[in-house]
Amino acid sequence: MAHPAVQEPTNMEIFRAAEILRSGGLVAFPTETVYGLGANALHEPAVARVFDVKGRPRFDPLIVHVADRTWISRLAAEWPPQAQQLADRFWPGPLTLVLPKTSLVPDLVTAGCSTVALRIPDHPVAQALLRAAELPVAAPSANPFGRISPTTAVHVRDQLGDRIDLILDGGPCRVGVESTVLHLTPAGPVVLRPGGITVEELEDLIGTVQVIDATSDESPSAGLLAPGTLPSHYAPRTPLILQSETALLPFERGGAGARRENPSVPTPRLGLLAFHTASDPARFTCIEVLSSTSDLREAAANFFAALRRLDAAGLDLIIAEVFPDVGLGRALNDRLRRAVHG
Ligand code: TXA
Ligand code: MG
Fold it and tell me: Do 209 and 287 meet the contact criterion of CB atoms below 8 Å apart?
């Protein structure tokens, strides 16, 4: 895969980025999941800029990132034993915990919710930045609202470059899908968004967790629990459908013969986003195979960049294979279903 050269930021750059955050500016930074667009979470004007730059509706709350657990008691009003267990196992890492908030957290960050989403990222650059800034940092993924999440600094530059103060380059993101958002409700743990920590890993540690299907209209509690988990998200500009939804497309049903009879009908340019093998490759102008060894981790790490390349290829339609609904496959299927809605 072609990735831009990795240039670890110097201490001076980290220091400058921390200064920008402290003075109310916006810094895009790498995490192990995707790149984040960070602002001082305790400074409402800076947080407001994040919403504006992303074009994000203000009813969609932001995740607050901290370097370590020393901030937690100032941000979360409760710290149940399950939170402790989960943090011991999965922090730093791609797990976000939703807990009752303290009054220190501005309402703008949580979109008026009485809860706050907290995460300790596992990326050396994110860690260095959070330590240098000595602040909690509110950071959504660094993409325009509803679009494909960035997994390299170049992705961020292409989409938001001139609208933010600094981009720290930490190379391609290791995990490649966003964190798992887990709400620890009094009625039990609820996964609001599947992500980098799998449901299986969570259940091994704390027993059964409920999983909200935010893409289903039949999930009446979803809107309540996950204010920002909209069905339409992660969308390429090119229309995308799932392979399970189609054997042959309407314009293919006539076959090559039909096109020979009417050569003025142009052949549509199809792209394929495949998990491990490209079946029927002759149908496609462009093919992205995510993991030739059927490794869901590798597929997740490649997912958004591959979707971006297909989106840039001038295709009429992208056909995406559905992943096995286990492990990281759930997070990938969730992103695919939302890309369809887009
Ligand atoms: O991996 C990630 O989580 C990345 C990196 C940058 O850390 N961030 C990220 O942020 O994906 P964003 O804003 O794209 O997604 C945050 C998700 C949204 O679905 C939002 O609704 C949910 O977290 N969320 C945030 N605060 C919440 C709260 N108080 N209650 C319920 N859901 C919340
Ligand atoms: Mg996002």
Answer: no
pLDDT at 264: 72
Q: Is the CB of 113 under 6 A from ligand 1?
A: yes
Q: Whose CA is nearest to atom 32 of ligand 1?
A: 226
Backbone angles phi, psi at 160, to 5 degrees: -130, 0
Which ligand 1 atom sits nearest the alpha carbon of residue 101? 29
**For residue 62, which of 96, 26, 22 has the smallest C-alpha distance?**
96
Strand arrangement of the beta sheet that strand 137-138 belongs to: 166-167, 27-29, 36-40, 137-138, 63-65, 115-119, 95-100, 180-185, 188-193, 210-211
C-alpha torsion 14→15→20→26, nearest 10:
10
CA distance 280 to 16: 51
Query: Which has the closest alpha carbon to 128: 61, 38, 44?
Result: 38
| CA dist 99 → 74, 127, 199, 213, 307 (Å) | 12, 22, 19, 20, 33
pTM for the model stands at: 0.92
118 CA → ligand 1 middle, Å: 9
- Provide the b/e sequence for 282-300 (b: ≥16 CB within 10 Å): ebbebbbbbbeeeebebbb
Give the residue ranges of the chain where pLDDT is below 50.
Answer: 1-6, 219-224
pLDDT digits (tens, 9 = 90+) for 273-301: 999 999 899 999 999 999 999 999 999 99
- E strands within 210-258? 210-211, 240-242
Q: In 21-165, which ranges are E strands?
A: 27-29, 36-40, 63-65, 95-100, 115-119, 137-138
- Whether 170 lines ligand 1, by a CB cut-off of 6 Å, is no
For residue 329 the two structure tokens come to 């496959």
pLDDT at 251 (0 to 100):
65
The confidence score (pLDDT) of residue 266 equals: 79
The pick from 96, 143, 215 for probing ligand 1's pocket by mutation, whose C-beta has the most ligand atoms within 8 angstroms, reads 96
Residue 96 pairs in a beta bridge with 181
CB-ligand 1 contact for 178 (6 Å cutoff): yes
In the three-class reduction of DSSP (H, G, I as helix; E, B as strand; rest coil), residue 133 is classed as helix
